[in-house]
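Example record for the data management plan.
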Amino acid sequence: MNFSVKIHQREQVALVEVVGHLTIFEVGALRDAIQSLLKHKRKNILLNLSGLQYLDSSGIGELVSAYTAVKNQSGDLKLLHLTKKVRDLLQITKLYTVFDVFTDENTALRSFI
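Corresponding structural encoding:
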């Protein structure tokens, strides 16, 4: 399965589209994308996970690491369009209560203001 991270700028928010399987083999790509955004002072990050088909413990750990890194830079990292599998995993691990999760992109973008 291919994995990709694509970044688009929407107003003051970096919209990051995550597609494929986020496992121990792919977490570096997401980490690099988040670190690059933070390096360029882009601290409002919305992860669109509609294309994320699978997430293992390393992927969950990377989402938490990304969230922590962004918060440590006084930014916000929020999630958009969780698939059922990803939502279920985040609920089981109680991380669903940590992240701000949205089902509508416009509502998510407005939440950064």
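Summary line stored alongside the record: Residues 57-72 form the longest helix (16 residues).
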